[in-house]
Design a protein that fits this description.
It is a single chain. With 293 residues, the protein is an alpha+beta fold. It folds into three domains: 78 residues, no CATH class; 114 residues, ATP-grasp fold, B domain (D-amino Acid Aminotransferase, Chain A, domain 1, 2-Layer Sandwich), CATH 3.30.470; 64 residues, Dna Ligase, domain 1 (2-Layer Sandwich), CATH 3.30.1490. Helix content is 29%, strand content 27%. It has eight helices and 16 strands. Helix 1 links the parallel strand 4 and strand 5. The model has no long low-confidence stretch (mean pLDDT 93).
Length: 293
């Protein structure tokens, strides 16, 4: 398939857009031109949108107008593309609506999936009361994904275990997500592409990885696994509810064999799973983007 690839950061300095709309139901018509390739908008069949940079505005623009110009470029390009009636991985509006954990827990419950008992709070007394009600092991995790820069190092904050006695007034400085600890037989990264599901078991080889497998990739082993029919049906309901055609789901499988939903990253990494398990995830992406599914 012919492909044009670019970073949104190249617009408007190194990429030209000329989109016309004259009332046609098929959306925008016109040209998108990079330094090496060109495409007619009406010939686009699919868009794969993943972690683009922000438009880079010329330094000749007065600083007072630079942020405004960046916003014009961002909305101009993204809204023209996002209104094309084509397959998207991942539509930016759908991504924004589906990317955050508090809403996902409600959607997962409505879809029939098991979820951990959870508290989002900045109240120390309420957190202490809740922890006493759980009467078991607890974890704390970021409410939303995002890296933090400590010194000169860019890093993510992992999930960590804590005791009720560890709670202090620093909790009141921002929102925190507290959850009950779910005993683990192993975890599952379930990659869903269109109608195809690729469940892979993740086995932790260290204490850090047992709490959050992203903390110690070197200790992990992977293998394809089977997804129960009721869990697969719940995942499909979750996907339909958000309008997703891709999702990287994280589950805990308990010693009793119960699958517990943790979260879904609607633009999550998948290549490391494909490389370790030989699951045909890349091929599924290609089929979806070609319109084969």
């Amino acid at each position: 398939m012919p492909v044009i690839r670019f970073d949104l950061a190249s617009f408007p300095q190194h990429l030209d857009l000329a989109a016309e709309h004259g009332g046609q139901a098929s959306g925008w018509r016109g040209d998108l031109i990079t330094g090496t390739r060109a495409v007619r908008l009406e010939e686009v069949r699919a868009v794969y949108y993943r972690r683009p940079g922000l438009p880079d505005i010329s330094r000749t623009v007065d600083p007072a107008y630079r942020e405004w110009a960046q916003g014009q470029a961002l909305v101009g390009m993204v809204q023209v593309l996002s209104s094309l009636p084509v397959v998207w991985l991942h539509h930016p509006d759908v991504y924004r609506a589906s990317a955050h954990k508090p809403g996902q827990l409600v959607a997962a419950t409505a879809a029939g999936l098991r979820v951990p008992r959870t508290l989002v709070t900045n109240s120390l007394p309420r957190a202490q009361q809740w922890a006493a009600q759980i009467d078991g092991q607890l974890i704390v995790k970021p409410v939303t994904a995002g890296a933090i820069t400590l010194g000169h190092r860019n890093m993510m904050l992992p999930t960590r275990r804590f005791e009720a006695s560890d709670l202090d007034d620093s909790l009141e400085l921002t929102a925190h997500m507290l959850q009950e600890w779910i005993p683990k037989q192993f975890e599952v990264r379930l990659t869903v592409v269109g109608d195809r599901m690729f469940p892979a078991a993740i086995h932790a080889g260290s204490e850090a990885a047992l709490v959050d497998w992203r903390s110690d990739y070197d200790s992990l082993t992977y293998e394809p696994t089977h997804i129960p029919d009721d869990v697969a049906a719940g995942v499909r309901r979750f996907m339909t509810g958000y309008g997703l055609n891709y999702g990287a789901f994280d589950f805990v499988v308990t010693p009793a064999g119960n699958w517990v939903f943790l979260e879904c990253n609607p633009a999550g990494q998948w290549q490391f799973i494909a490389a370790a398990t030989k699951l045909p995830i890349a091929e599924a992406h290609a089929s979806l983007l070609q319109g084969a599914e």
